[in-house]
Amino acid sequence: VYLSPLEKKEILYFVISILIFIYFVKSVILLSFSWTLISFSADLRKKVSNKLFNIYINKSYLFHTLKNSSRLFRNIAWSSNIASGASSFISFASDIIIFIFIITALFIFQPVITAFIFFLIILILFIYKLIFKNLLKLYGQKQMYHDGEKVKVVYESFGSIKELIIYKLKNKFLDIFDFHNSSAIQIDKRKSFLTGFPRIFL
Fold first, then answer.
1. What is the 3-state secondary structure (H, E, C) of 126-160?
2. What's 67's DSSP letter?
3. At 60, is the secondary structure helix, strand, or coil?
4. Which residues of 93-103 are buried (b: 16+ CB within 10 A; e: fewer)?
5. pTM for the whole thing?
6. First-to-last CA distance in the chain?
7. What is the pLDDT of residues 58-91, one digit of tens each?
8. Which DSSP helix (H) or strand (E) runs through 196?
9. Alpha helices for 2-110 (secondary structure H)
10. 52-70: string of b/e by CB count within 10 Å (b at 16+)?
């Protein structure tokens, strides 16, 4: 079937439009999935670290005299770290493939449009960085503070376990740990989402 250059161009535009629409829909779905995944990971980290600290602080005084407090703290930190994160390589690879295909097709048939798209992407990333740079910096500072307080609580509780048992202060230290642990993880959740947001649409 003979197709005129105009018809070929219209078909190409239609195919590219469909791909862009699919890519946009996929990005919105991926955005929702990313937030759900980050939230699930954050909740899991909170539950695991809180549970482990609760187990350790309720152990007997003899247990703490036989165990190294630094090792107990490393266990809490390690359990929280292995419960974090989970990025999908397949999803990332598909993003790259679709993006390269669209850009290549545009570059072959419409180099001017391609140059404009690249410029637009760079401009969006630059604006995004300007808007959220200070917020991400603030999140980092707040997370560092709560992580530091969390470490302080753990070492103080393990170092004064005898007094905690005698004066029944375990619940107080558990509440303080839960507050700083929850605060640090919630901040990290928002920071991770903002950091990964541009990749979802690129």
1. HHHHHHHHHHHHHHHHHHHHHHHHHHHHHHHHHHC
2. S
3. coil
4. eebeebeeebe
5. 0.71
6. 36
7. 999 889 888 888 888 888 877 666 555 444 455 5
8. helix 170-201
9. 5-57, 61-66, 69-82, 89-109
10. bbeebbeeeeeebeeeeee
